[in-house]
Amino acid sequence: LIGGNDITARNAIGPSARRVGEAVRALREGGSHVVVGTCPDLGIIKPVPQPLRSVMATLSRRLAAAQAVQVRRAGGVPVSLAETLAPEFYRRGESLFSPDRFHPNSAGYELAAGLLLPAVCVALGVWDEVPEGALPRDSVEAANAWHEAELAADAAGREGVTVGVGGRVEGD
Question: What confidence score (pLDDT) does residue 145 get?
């Protein structure tokens, strides 16, 4: 699970995503299977005031998309936490955050782990593919949308390309 600190520390999206790709590449070269939970949607953190919360939401989703491209290029498996966790965090609110109201609590991390588990099972060869019903329908649709965005970024063929919200290809 990676990326939240890059947003709060105001690190640039392109270099942050490339660092993740480099780490994944090194792990893969060492023989590891790698599943990356991309940057969650930090716009769900209600104690952060507007308009900063909206800015954090946009930046975290851009970073997640860029991470997904880099992770896939490096041979890893990206799992979009922004698309899959945010709706549940909005619905269940405070019951998924720790007392600092910024980090997830054990229930929030359990939810994230449940979303990562199918990808881990496929990566390890336990499953040939994610069984129907193993992920919530919204998660499957989100994964398909992000995959299409990744393909658009790959088609652009430029280093430092990120994919914005809605699949728009953007520069750093």
Answer: 44
